[in-house]
Write a sequence for this structure.
């Protein structure tokens, strides 16, 4: 508000005002290099490359487990790939894909011309790329830890000579630092650079979810940095914080899993939260009406963020006394997610009641909507598996394949299908080209279907007591069928993801796709009020903002954004 | 408040066709887009505060590990460790003094008093040098090594954490001092100065946490 008051009212162009800091006012040789849309796209591109590598690793692991007594990888290689698969999926795919989409989309959604600190954003990306390269290079130097929780072998002094683990830890620290810089940037942008009349309650729900996720990351990633740093100190400088046994001369090996999950558990949730925001945004857009009970949806997302800190102990087997608390914590966080699903369904129901049913039915077949709808069953399965495993906190369900299934459904399946939905929804905006609708149908079928197969097969194996780190099994174990299902599912997902990459490469990079107009979906929010791709300063002019859905207001000319939801008329009160 | 006068009659609102941009206001005049290149006042300060929040969580993780190891230990600090209180107290007093000198700088900057602001920054820098020097003394005079026991490791890690922050804050304030002398700041616009001051005060907070954990909470029953 203050910005427009002081600087625009005289009608003087911004160029006439003297620069605030003459010393730092250097010419910019590469304006695109600090453009949030470009750098955000770089984040997304890097994430997709790392995803490809991570999925390739997953397929190798699944090949090893596809049948009894297979001998494709060997135990040692399997353990290395196991670690890299987990680390890359979380830190090098989900984290950067949301940071990239968030930094590219959020300024557009809130009507800002840029991020608060554009050069910091560019630095964060190159920092991330360097850290990612270190992580990927680590197992080439020497054997790294076993498992993405880096919990084996602890005590670290007894194994793992060589520089691989050190490299892995430093790389992860750099990646987390880069992520924190991006998060700070996005949060400050949301707090400071919103368009006039765009109050915090009016920011689109994807921006809201990025803000909540960013707040969680801001508090949780540093815990991981501290933990990784101390583990590095232990390994590299020969101290014994996490090794030795309790006593005045040694540390305590039980501390490592606690401090790790204390940071990592909220991070996992933080990487699901933006997917919830994406689906909320898409469902509302294609329903042609504002999200049902937007305030409660915002509160649910914020609730996931807050409660994500409550259940970390459910992943740790050495906390028997606090078990009940963590069971409650891990269950409580599921409630707001479920309530959000109700919001989505109610939005569609209300749209069917109010509007043109045929138009709505046609909208159901739009690509982003199909992705969003495909995410719902995976999310539901993940929630169900989580509920069971929460009840079993710290026990069997966290050591066997039940946990694998739960994590792949909720944190990987739902989150990455949400990311795919976001790409198909905002890709045309960012890159000016639409992805292929025909290919998308195949992609969705493969990715959603394959994920469902995988996520159904894994808890089955968990019920049969197959342990998380199992690298081979013999025919007497009766796990052949389950493993075959999981492997087939993974292969189908891999195929689907390959299609996604081909789709992006052909239609965006090779510029074969249909030109996207400014507003291909009939969007509700500000990013659709500018060209695709937007100019470097994002907006030449902004539509007037009277609610959280300014473009919908223009189209329907209805005052949707009354403080409480306008669809439900309270009893004894006329609207 | 920049409220735009809005016609609320429903029938004259334009229906945007797909592909048309920019949209036009119902009043006929498009609202100017956001002004590029100049964030709102206070942006650097808020950025610094958020960064510092994240940084504090790193410290929190280290302190959590310290407390967990301490709870599981029979004697803490380990036998043979005698941490003095002289140097930590000196650092604490210096940190408090630097908090005041930094605040003096902000008050001066608000009055557009560049001379006093520069003097305050000079004093702060001097105190910062003293703090770093005393930090170094706590390493040298501790009487135990990094790897002797977990207390030694965390002692060095925590004081190193503070030393690193003191060094970073020193460099930030040094740059701000040059800019103050060069006349970059006015009574209305000195965001960078406020942000730098916020980081300096955070560094003092780090010290208060470190001194509490290492020297006050180090005894146990």
């Amino acid at each position: 508000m203050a910005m427009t008051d002081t600087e625009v009212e005289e009608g003087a162009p911004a160029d006439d005002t003297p620069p605030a800091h003459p010393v730092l006012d250097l010419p910019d040789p590469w304006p695109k290099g600090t453009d949030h849309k470009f750098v955000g796209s770089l984040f997304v591109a890097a994430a997709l490359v790392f995803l490809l590598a991570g999925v390739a690793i997953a397929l190798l692991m699944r090949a090893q487990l596809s049948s009894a007594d297979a001998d494709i990888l060997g135990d040692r290689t399997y353990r290395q790939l196991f670690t890299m698969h987990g680390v890359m999926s979380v830190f090098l795919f989900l984290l950067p894909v949301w940071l990239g989409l968030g930094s590219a989309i959020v300024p557009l959604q809130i009507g800002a011309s840029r991020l608060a600190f554009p050069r910091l954003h560019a630095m964060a990306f190159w920092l991330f790329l360097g850290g990612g390269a270190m992580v990927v290079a680590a197992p080439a130097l020497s054997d790294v830890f076993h498992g993405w929780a880096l919990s084996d072998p602890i005590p670290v002094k007894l194994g793992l000579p060589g520089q691989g683990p050190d490299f892995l830890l430093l790389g992860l620290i750099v990646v987390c630092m880069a992520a924190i810089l991006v998060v700070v940037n996005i949060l400050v942008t949301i707090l400071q650079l919103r368009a006039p009349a765009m109050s915090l309650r009016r920011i689109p729900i994807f921006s809201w979810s990025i803000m909540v996720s960013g707040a969680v990351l801001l508090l949780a990633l540093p815990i991981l940095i501290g933990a990784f740093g101390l583990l590095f100190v232990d390994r590299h400088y020969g101290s014994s914080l996490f090794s030795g046994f309790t006593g005045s001369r040694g540390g305590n090996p039980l501390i490592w899993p606690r401090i790790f999950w204390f940071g990592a558990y909220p991070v996992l949730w933080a990487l699901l939260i933006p997917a919830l925001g994406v689906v909320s945004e898409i469902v509302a857009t294609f329903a042609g009406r504002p999200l049902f009970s937007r305030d409660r949806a915002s509160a649910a997302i914020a609730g996931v963020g807050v409660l994500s800190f409550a259940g970390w102990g459910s992943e740790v087997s050495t906390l028997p006394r606090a078990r009940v608390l963590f069971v409650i914590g891990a269950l409580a966080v599921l409630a707001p997610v479920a309530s959000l699903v109700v919001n989505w369904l109610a939005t569609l129901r209300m749209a069917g009641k109010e509007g043109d049913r045929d138009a709505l039915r046609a909208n159901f077949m739009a690509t982003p909507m199909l992705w969003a709808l495909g995410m719902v069953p995976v999310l539901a399965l993940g929630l169900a598996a989580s509920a069971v495993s929460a009840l079993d906190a710290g026990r069997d369900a966290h050591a066997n394949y039940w946990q694998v299934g739960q994590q792949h459904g909720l944190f990987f399946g739902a989150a990455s299908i949400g990311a795919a939905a976001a790409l198909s929804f905002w890709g045309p905006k960012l890159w000016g080209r639409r992805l292929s609708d025909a290919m998308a149908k195949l992609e969705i079928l493969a990715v959603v279907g394959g994920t469902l197969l995988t996520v159904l097969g894994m808890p089955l194996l968990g019920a049969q007591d197959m342990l998380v780190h199992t690298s081979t099994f013999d025919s007497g174990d009766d796990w052949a069928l389950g493993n075959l299902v999981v492997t087939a599912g993974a292969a189908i997902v891999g195929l689907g993801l390959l299609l996604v990459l081909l789709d992006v490469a052909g239609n965006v990079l090779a510029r074969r796709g249909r030109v996207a107009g400014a507003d291909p979906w009939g969007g509700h929010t500000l990013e659709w009020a500018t060209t695709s791709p937007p100019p470097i300063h994002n907006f030449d002019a902004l539509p007037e903002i009277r609610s959280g859905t300014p473009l919908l207001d223009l189209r329907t000319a209805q005052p949707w954004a009354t403080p409480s939801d306008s669809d439900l008329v309270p009893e004894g009160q006329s609207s | 408040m920049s409220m735009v006068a809005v016609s609320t009659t429903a029938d004259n609102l334009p229906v945007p066709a797909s592909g048309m941009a920019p949209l036009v206001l119902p009043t006929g005049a498009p609202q100017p887009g956001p002004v590029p290149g100049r964030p709102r006042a206070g942006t650097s300060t808020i950025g610094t505060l958020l960064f510092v929040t994240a940084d504090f969580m790193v410290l929190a993780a280290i302190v959590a590990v310290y407390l967990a190891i301490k709870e599981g230990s029979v004697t803490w600090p380990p036998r043979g460790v005698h941490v003095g209180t002289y140097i930590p107290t000196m650092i604490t007093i210096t940190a408090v003094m630097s908090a005041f000198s930094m605040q003096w700088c902000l008050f001066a900057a608000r009055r557009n008093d560049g001379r006093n602001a520069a003097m305050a920054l000079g004093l702060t820098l001097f105190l910062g040098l003293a703090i770093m020097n005393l930090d170094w003394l706590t390493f040298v005079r501790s009487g135990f090594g990094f790897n002797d026991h977990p207390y030694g490791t965390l002692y060095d890690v925590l004081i190193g954490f503070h030393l690193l922050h003191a060094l970073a804050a020193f460099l930030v304030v040094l740059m701000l001092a040059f800019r103050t002398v060069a006349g970059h700041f006015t009574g209305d616009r000195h965001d960078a100065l406020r942000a730098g001051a916020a980081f300096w005060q955070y560094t003092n907070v780090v010290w208060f946490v470190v001194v509490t954990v290492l020297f006050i909470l180090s005894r146990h029953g």
User: Anything to note?
Assistant: Chain A touches chain B through 85 residues (CB under 8 Å).
